Every structure is written in C-alpha cells, then in structure tokens.
Amino acid sequence: MKEIKKNKYNAAYDLLIRNIDKNPDKIAFIDNNNSITYQELFRKVKAFSYSIKKYQIKENDRIILCMHDSIEYPIVFLGLIWSGIIPICINTMLPKKDYAYMLEDSEAKAIITLSDFKNSFLSIIENKKNKPLLISDDNDELNCLNKLINQAENSIENPYDSNENDVAFWLYSSGSTGTPKGTLHIHKSLIATANTYAKKIIKINKNDICFSAAKLFFAYGLGNALTFPMSIGATSILMAGRPTAESVSNIIKKYSVTLFFGVPTLYAALLSSNININDYQSLRLSISAGEALPAHLCEKWKKLLGISILDGIGSTEMLHIFISNSIEDTIPGASGRPVEGYKARLINDDGKEAFDDEIAELEVQGPSSAISYWKKPEKSKLTFKENWVKTGDKYIRNKDGIYTYCGRVDDMMKVSGQYVSPFEVEAALQNHKDVLEAAVVGEKDINGLIKPKAFIVLNENVSTSKNLELELTNHVKSQLTPFKYPRSYEFIDTLPKTATGKIQRFKLRIKND
Prior knowledge:
Layout: H1 11-20, E1 27-30, E2 35-37, H2 38-53, E3 62-66, H3 72-83, E4 86-89, H4 96-106, E5 110-113, H5 115-125, E6 133-135, H6 145-150, E7 167-172, E8 182-186, H7 187-201, E9 209-212, H8 219-232, E10 235-237, H9 245-255, E11 259-262, H10 264-271, E12 285-288, H11 295-305, E13 309-314, E14 321-324, E15 337-338, E16 343-347, E17 360-365, E18 372-373, H12 377-383, E19 384-385, E20 388-397, E21 403-408, E22 413-415, E23 418-420, H13 422-430, E24 435-444, E25 450-458, H14 466-479, E26 488-491, H15 505-512
Parallel strand pairs: 1-10, 3-4, 3-5, 4-7, 5-6, 9-10, 9-11, 11-12, 12-13, 25-26
Antiparallel strand pairs: 1-2, 7-8, 8-18, 13-14, 14-15, 16-17, 17-20, 19-20, 20-21, 22-23, 24-25
Helix pairs in contact: 1-2, 1-7, 1-8, 2-3, 7-8
C-alpha cells in the first residue's frame, strides 16, 4: 500500500493553482520580448514537466539552471519543482571555474542554460565520464529548451506528491569568503516569504507591477520577481540585461511599475544620474537589500521622489528579508525590526545574548530557513543551530528594538580597544559631496595596531589631493566618535563587489597585506 504523505504540498502547484480560478487571463510575466498569462504559464509548466521526464530524469534528481531573467525561467523553475526534480539556480555572472565546482559539487544530472553559456558548460563536461545532459535555447539542438516548453504533445496533470518539508530547490551562496555553498530550501519556504514580508511589509496586492533589479537566481530576486507576484496574482517585469540607471528608468516608466526592488549601489547610481522624476510617478514603494543602505541615499530618494526606500536584511539561508523597515516607520540608516513571523537575537563573543546598544552577531529564526548546506555537515552545524541561523553579521539594537547593521563579523575592527563598524565609517564618508562610494578595512600601523583605512571612489570631475584627504578626515570626525576616522586613504576607480552589490572587503584586506 502506498504511504500517504502528511503535510502534502507542492510549491509550484500552490503558486500556479491560486491564480487559475481568479486570474487566468491576467499577465503574469513580461520580459524583453513577450508576455504570458497565468493560464498560459500553467499550461507550459505542465508541458515542460512532461517533456523533461522523457530524458529519464527522476524525482529528486538535481538540474543546474543557469539562465537570464525571461519568461522561460519561471516555466523551467516551476516545471522542475512540479515534477519533483530539484532546480539549482546559479548566477549567470560567475567565472567558469565556479560553474565547474557547482556542477561537480551538486552531482547534477542535467544543465539547462542559454546559448550564451553553452560553450562554457560544454568545455566543463567534455572530459566527464558521466556527462550531464545539456539543454539550451539553440533551435538547431536536439535538446532544445524552446521545444521542451512549446511543442510538448502531453502534460503532467498532477504535481509530484511532495511534502512541505521536502527539498524543493537549491541556491548557491556567493562564496565570498570560501567555496560556494549549496543551500537547500524546502517547499513551504517560498510561500512563507510571501505570507510574511510581501504581505506584512510591502503589502503587495494584485494590481501591483513588480520589477526587481536583483535577478531570479538570487534569493532576493526570486521572491521579488516570482514568489511575491504569483502569491497574489500581480504582474512581474523581467529584464535579461544588467540593470543600469537608464534601463531601470525606462522599465519603470514603460510599464508603470509600482514596486521596485533594488540594491544600494543601484540606488546610488540612479541618484547620481540626474533621473527624471516624471519617469517614477507610478512607484508606490521602493525596496533595498543586499547590503545596508546608507542613510543619505534613503533621505535623498525620499526628497527627490516623495517615496520611501524600505531597507532590510535577508540572506540566501533565510531566502528573503527577515528584518525590515516598514511603510509606517522608516528609519534611514537602520535595517528596522524583525518581520512578523521571524525572531532575531544578538549573541556576544561569550555566547550570551547581548544587551541593547551592544554590538554582537545577529542570529535569526523563521519559517523560510534553509535546512542545511549540501555536503558540508560541520558548516551546517555551525550555521543552523537549534532552529537559529547564524548570519555572520554584526548588529546593534537600541531600546526601541531597532536593528542597525555594523558590518560582517570578519570586517569588524577593534581600534583603541573598541569595535568599529566599517559600514558606519563608510556611511559618513559617502555623505561627503565628493564621494560616490567608500569601503573601509583594518590596516596595521607602524606599531602593528589596527587602524581604519578607506578606499574611495570619487564622483566625476573630482581630483585627489592631500587637502581632500584632510577634508574627509575632518568630515568623519564631525559625524562620528573621532577615533573612528580613517588613518589612510586610497583612491580607486571601482570597489570589488559580489554580483548582488555587496562590497568584498576581504579583497581589499588582501590588497593591503
């Protein structure tokens, strides 16, 4: 007798079926070339599920998904989950060595990609004994993605009989301080982010038009551009290319976007590009994550456009934002309060809960947590401990319960016996009229003591000089406790960053060594 699963639930089925009765003819996704309704999406997801099974790929097998944002992405992602196959969403901007590592590490049975990346994957698998199946969008290929989606004669009517706690998909962490980690997410996690953050914080509704500069292969972008709009029957705009000030402005204007999801570096670029405020009239709310948003960017955006940027913190491990500002209460320079449904705590170096106004490591608990890392038991044990997830971020909480970012654990400096947050010094520097971006790391002085060093990207038509360094020093001293000022400066063209826009301070520390 077949065992009846308790808590039977399939994430793809849930996101699709909730729109079939209520919104079948509503536009679900719009990309660079086409649009698709919820009814068409439902049909193509089932058709793709049938087609992929013809390749003898079984339930719980893993498939690498490396694609630009397009209508095909949700079809493939949801189609695999519908079938009980596990999609592994990976960054399209990584070097080939990372693709090779992820393919080897995940033991994926197939790769679904685009012609842009086909040659890279072909060279990776050419010497493998058990070659993974390669599916691309080349029309002359036997394993053609477009044919799998559009020319299936049949479909799988019923989704895979999964449990809400079964693994549904993976995301790979950025690997900014080591090799990338396969992060395992379960079926119920997707809708949990919609029921908490999307519903409670941004108050998404079916009339919203969502545009996320963060791509679908990021945890942040996956929620913004797929889970959130599908949870309520809204419309999502997908853009294949790199988001620039010009392309973002054009999309917001063209599609009358109401919810815009960006990252701090993009907001800085938009604000320095002399944007036309008329292009942004449709926006009701802007959201930022990926790295803490400096207060001056939030204030400048509000002054220019009359709408808030809700800054928050999320992670690959937690799938989306778990601490956030709210529409009713936005504090520039702070991450805000825990989202309803999540708990947060600060743990000091002694392993005890920190007091208010004490810098300590942030841990979080909530319904969208990953269950573990793939094949990394020790790292999993350290990160996922007794239902709490260690974030690796240093935070401070005030008496009102507001959390403010202080930097990554490895980025913190002890100067004159006291912790200094690089983000705090960077925010002060970026408040200067001549500074576009700043990153601060610790550097040993002639006595071997750690002191802050600032790497500065200047605005256009600003020249470096000793007078400017003195001006920046005095500027920081006027805003912070004086001992926190940078003792040295290096002016550079660009800062090293992850694809999500996070500053990679460890690369600047290596540069100093």
